[in-house]
Amino acid sequence: MRKSIATVSLSGRLIEKLEAIAAAGFDGVEIFENDLLFHDGPVRDVRRYAADLGLTIDLFQPFRDFEGVSDEQHKRNLVRAERKFDLMGELGAPLMLVCSNVGTDVADDDGRAAAQLFELAERAARHQLKIGYEALSWGTRVRTFDHAWRIVETVNHPHIGLILDSFHTLALPDDWSSLRNLPGQRIFFVQLADAPRLGMTPLTLSRHFRSFPGQGDLDVPGFLQAVLATGYSGTISLEIFSDETRSAPPRLTAEDAFRSLRFLEEQARKQPVRQENASEARRRRVELFDPPPPPVISGVRFVEFAVDQRSERPFAALLEQLGFRHLGRHRSKEVSLFGQGDIRIVVNREPDSFAASYFLVHGPSVCALALETDDALAALGRAEAYGAARFDGRVGPNELAIPAIRSDAGSVIYFTDREIAADFETDFEIDPDAAALPALLTRIDHIAQALPDGQLDPSVLFYRAVLGLEPEAPVVLADPYGLVRSKAVSNPERTLRMPLNISESRNTVTARSVSNYGGAGVHHIALATNDIFAAATSLKARGAVILPIPVNYYDDIQARFGLDDDRLAMLRDANILYDRVGDGEFLHFYTMPFEDRFYFEIVQRIGGYDSYGAPNAPVRMAALAAGRMSARDLAEL
Ligand SMILES: O=C(O)c1ccc(O)c(O)c1
Ligand SMILES: [Mg+2]
């Protein structure tokens, strides 16, 4: 379908917004009046500039508080409308959005509203313009699409039609199932937005917390499906009012927005079609985005760290404390492979490589992840269809070229192929004895990332669209220095789990990780074991430094979970944290951060435990903060 976006959805000046919108791939824009008022230059220039960028101007909005007023006010409104029609003529906008009246003086009389809108439609017709009438969910009288439709039907003028907005329909608790019975040719425009369910009034939610489809809790795919069932085949347009996008870079927002519409189309395409509606099924096939299916991900094949000559040695020492063995060296590059169980860690200090440039910006850090998939090329195709940039690393003679993309945060995601025998390990001279040794740590349980404020929703959408991951329930964690918001994305088999964390305050562990890194990045990797007590003993014996947990914590969990004294003592002595949900248990401990950047977590899941120990996050973050303090105190001595 044709795709458009309202200029209010992006930050910046009008020209900047248009450039970002065009660059992201949109076909058109809705121009918000304020953007025009603040534009310093002739309106005709905006029209020409949009045309040069290949964008149509689809709509001008909003025209407020028009219908159901006194005769006197109506006359003034018509004068006001004529001024806007002239402006629309210069702008080349064919359609004006009139939103339902929110004033205090609105007649309880649909006939009056219809008569006044008829006159507006007549005036619009003289200018070869059209009017679209939209119900705001907080309108004084008209709040629903069906009420707006009854009025439009009464007006019965070819120059007035209905504008639908998913937000207004879905934010109200009302049944909206009759939407699919509207006549599609009388729908002049369709606006789409999502929102989280925050228990606010629709007005507050709408003005501050709208999000792109797929980023909130509303059934926008079901809404689009109903719209298609009407026979509507016009433009779909995003209209977001959001405190976050108002301050985010417009180019990133526009890319995120465009991805959300494609993802929405894919989801709407997958919804079941009612049997009687063969034409809807056909239209879906033609109109809706159809990327390759998401990959089946069997796990993390390897994690790649960027290091330099100095940090390589202490990092390798940390890996050895965790029980990793050096498995081999790369055939042509300054790259080493470490492993135990199914875990593979690549340590890269090759000069002039992607890892080297990543290191320059981020220091020692995770620069790439490799995901094992059922079909690596299909995974790459899907990622590219969703606008991810392909990554081509340097490949030596007889070495494997692994399909890869840049993640939204700038690191690399490789796709390895479970079915293809040629594996990345063939690029290494492997020591078979080291690879065969028994392991205490078996696989990667989860990879947690810290993101800059404002990046949570876009990042969740990236992983949903590109990798087919699904978001888990959001949690808010209390760090001693501020709140951290977290949402994990994972695959249905839970062989890939990625908690994504953001912090609005500057001093939390999450925010410090972002600032120390110079941007988004992995702040911890959780490794699974089948025997956490043996793992704790063995790590300690190898010299690993474990994050100390205050003893008060253990009094609390004994009270909460009724643990027996022996088990409690074992947990306490090993600084192991504990959580339980139903029959499922979660035991976990942490290493001290490596150069204040990232750390490892060792976890054991028992009996189908499916989360991340969120109740223990505050004690972990407090312990990390305390560790930072004592390091500083020591330095100051
Ligand atoms: O918040 C508003 O006033 C407003 C204006 C125009 C719209 O299309 C809308 O959905 C909301
Ligand atoms: Mg709207």
Structure description:
The chain has 637 residues and is of the alpha/beta class. The chain has three domains: 3-283, Divalent-metal-dependent TIM barrel enzymes (TIM Barrel), CATH 3.20.20; 291-439, 2,3-Dihydroxybiphenyl 1,2-Dioxygenase, domain 1 (Roll), CATH 3.10.180; 440-637, 2,3-Dihydroxybiphenyl 1,2-Dioxygenase, domain 1 (Roll). It contains 21 helices and 25 strands. The strands form three sheets. Strands 17, 18, 19, 20, 21, 22, 23, 24 and 25 form a nine-stranded mixed beta sheet that branches. The chain has an eight-stranded parallel β-barrel with strand order 1-2-3-4-5-6-7-8, surrounded by seven helices. An eight-stranded mixed beta sheet has the order 14-15-13-9-12-11-10-16. Strand 1 (3-6), helix 1 and strand 2 form a beta-alpha-beta unit. The protein binds 3,4-dihydroxybenzoic acid (DHB) and magnesium ion (MG).
Number of domains: 3
How many whole angstroms does the radius of gyration measure?
28 Å
| CATH homologous superfamily annotation of the largest domain | Divalent-metal-dependent TIM barrel enzymes
C-alpha end-to-end distance: 66 Å
What does the overall shape look like?
elongated
Low-confidence stretches: none
Hetero groups in this structure are:
3,4-dihydroxybenzoic acid, magnesium ion
Q: Which CATH-level-2 architecture of the largest domain? A: Alpha-Beta Barrel
Q: Write down the oligomeric state.
A: single chain
Top-tier CATH class of the largest domain: Alpha Beta
EC number: 4.2.1.118
Family: Belongs to the bacterial two-domain DSD family.
Cofactor: a divalent metal cation
Keywords: Lyase, Metal-binding
